[in-house]
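Hey, resending since the last one bounced:
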Amino acid sequence: MDFIIEKLKQYNIPEIEIERYNEPHRFWHNLDHIKNMINIAKSRNVLSDDLFLAIVFHDIIYNPKANNNEERSAELLCKYIDNEEIKQAILDTKTHEPKSELSKQLCDLDLSFLWGDYETFIDFENKIFKEYQFVDYNTYKEKRLEILSGFGINPEWLNYVKYRKPKIAVYAGSFNPFHKGHYNILKKAEQIFDKVIIARGVNPKKNNKITDLPAKVQNRQIETYTGLLTDFIDGLGYDTTLVRGLRNATDLQYELTQYRFLQDLNPNIKIVFLFCDKEYEHISSSAIRSLEMYNKQDKYLL
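The structure tokens again:
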């Protein structure tokens, strides 16, 4: 990291720019990826100043939901450096079709994990899966196989993507509003499961205002259902576990009753109950809605 910062200082590029790689939605396209590319370039004795800048800036703007990351990254480079060859090399990482020697070096480093060992590929695929967790699993798997097949990688590695069965959970609730207690349960669930779908149950007979979920959770898959929760889970088409959050013994007794109904509707349903941390056990959406009348709700929201 010190090496990167010192090199950036030579071009009067502020350290705050490299902090973009620490954004919470990044699991693969982060600072570790940049460091790895630099280390490989050093080991090959090809790390020129132009290649260094191309590496650092090629993913500096990254939003997995956007399709203009390379363009915006190149634009940010041009804010500090006027170099058309570096700019084009960054743009070439969109298709990985290099148009210069610098571009070829950058693209090769960017995809070096594809030619490494099996463990490196698994680590890559698991992190990409996290970055694209907002995509439904069936769609994700189809698109990943299509993309990876285009690179001509080892068929055994494609089989990992094809036959992998990630641990996926459904965290269901009205989340009206989604508060710090909900987020505490979500983070606990994500320590257990590869992916947690946020499922918002909406009663069409009620005219309650549905609040937007906070930006902090927008990189997850967010679904809305209006019927039975068991029907929603069955409709996903893959194995999932239902996550229920508990604040206290009263919640536990209520959830046990609900569990019996869910079992009647779907005898095969799997449920995990998670207690929130003590500091959140008094927070509820209904209490927050009451506090909204006095503008005292913000301390409980994300």
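The chain has a mean pLDDT of 94.

Sorry for the duplicate.
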